[in-house]
């Protein structure tokens, strides 16, 4: 299964939204199909990072398909992009504010990973809770990107945040980088474990860097809560059962660089939509992927078909009226009236007219991507 190989933060989602917004403002579109195709192509490069980009596309274009005014739809899409960007400005702070009540002034917290959200969370917690202390796993792996380990990279990121710059030496005093082999001994001292995520699977499992499964296993055995900080755009429609199901980076040798943590070992997930258990991730993904079969979706498709029937009738009538064959058809029609029963002629002509309309309708439907 294809999975992300890094802990991307909300900046990647902001970049995608701005690209779509630039597309909407810089190009002219004549049909909805053309617009939808361009947006899909723009977001295609982000597919491997999670289903959040597809959910954004659906939210963006949900009303355009049944709208008669494409320019108004484009204006609405621009407004939705602006609203989404404003939400992103506060999403990280919302997640951290949800986590802060779990952090006391004497809390001892074990951390693993090096994501931007995790770095901000550490800096904010130290700023708000004077006596808190973080034990950061060294995170040495075969990855060339973090030659000194993810722990050092996380501490550097935390120091570069606005909160970290204000804290200065207090940040370093409140954090201790521990060797990965000493994690088991430290586990008995900590109040809970928190880590970021490469992605969260459909059934609430975690995909993260080397060492995540080991930490989760020890935490589960010692009854230590295990929390995950993850934005909802990382929720991904995959269903791995173990690390063996995940596609590893090319640089990976015998030791996997990406591991899977089962949902049974995860206590809570902190996202911008609130605090949720792993089972709530399943409900969120199920709600989105079954939306096309919901009553509202059926109503939308019904109006689409009505629109195609109407357009088919217009096309057929216009084609007949603008063609010389219509003159011959009219002459034949009046000849048949004089020689035959009127009702029979009307039925025959009506039948062939509806047959042509049906053929045009089928062509319209087959050429449309629902």
TrEMBL record:
Molecular function via GO: guanyl-nucleotide exchange factor activity; translation initiation factor activity
GO cellular component labels: eukaryotic translation initiation factor 2B complex
Name recorded for this polypeptide: Translation initiation factor EIF-2b alpha subunit
Organism expressing this protein natively: Trypanosoma cruzi Dm28c
Pfam family, one: IF-2B
Transmembrane segments: 313-337, 343-365
Protein keywords: Initiation factor, Membrane, Protein biosynthesis, Transmembrane, Transmembrane helix
Family: Belongs to the eIF-2B alpha/beta/delta subunits family.
Gene3D superfamilies on file: Translation initiation factor eif-2b, domain 2
Keyword Transmembrane helix (UniProt): yes
């Amino acid at each position: 299964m294809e999975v992300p190989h890094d802990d991307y933060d909300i900046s990647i989602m902001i970049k995608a939204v701005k690209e779509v917004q630039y597309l909407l403002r810089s190009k002219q579109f004549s049909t909805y199909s053309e617009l939808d195709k361009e947006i899909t192509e723009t977001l295609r490069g982000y597919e491997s990072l999670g289903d959040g980009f597809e959910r954004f596309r659906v939210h963006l274009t949900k009303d355009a398909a049944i709208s008669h005014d494409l320019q108004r739809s484009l204006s609405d899409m621009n407004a939705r992009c602006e609203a989404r960007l404003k939400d992103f400005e506060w999403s990280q702070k919302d997640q951290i504010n949800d986590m802060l009540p779990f952090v006391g002034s004497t809390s001892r917290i074990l951390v693993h990973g090096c994501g931007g959200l995790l770095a901000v969370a550490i800096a904010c917690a130290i700023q708000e809770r004077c006596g808190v202390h973080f034990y950061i796993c060294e995170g040495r792996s075969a990855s060339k990107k973090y030659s000194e380990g993810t722990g050092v990279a996380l501490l550097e990121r935390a120091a570069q945040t606005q909160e970290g710059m204000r804290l200065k030496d207090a940040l370093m005093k409140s954090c201790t980088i521990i060797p990965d082999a000493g994690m088991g001994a430290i586990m008995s001292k900590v109040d809970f474990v928190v880590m970021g995520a490469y992605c969260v699977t459909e059934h609430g499992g975690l995909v993260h860097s080397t060492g995540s499964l080991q930490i989760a296993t020890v935490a589960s055995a010692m009854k230590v809560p295990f929390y995950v900080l993850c934005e909802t755009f990382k929720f991904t429609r995959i269903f791995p059962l173990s690390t063996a199901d995940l596609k590893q980076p090319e640089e990976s040798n015998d030791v996997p660089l990406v591991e899977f943590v089962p949902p049974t070992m995860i206590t809570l997930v902190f996202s911008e939509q609130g605090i949720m258990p792993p089972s709530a991730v399943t409900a969120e993904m199920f709600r989105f992927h079954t939306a096309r079969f919901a009553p509202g979706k059926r109503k939308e498709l019904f109006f689409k078909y009505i629109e195609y029937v109407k357009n088919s009738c217009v096309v057929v009538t216009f084609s007949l009226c603008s063609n010389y064959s219509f003159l011959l058809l009219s002459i034949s029609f009046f000849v048949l009236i004089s020689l035959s029963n009127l009702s029979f002629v009307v039925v025959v002509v009506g039948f062939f007219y509806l047959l042509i309309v049906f053929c045009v309708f089928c062509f319209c439907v087959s050429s449309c991507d629902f």
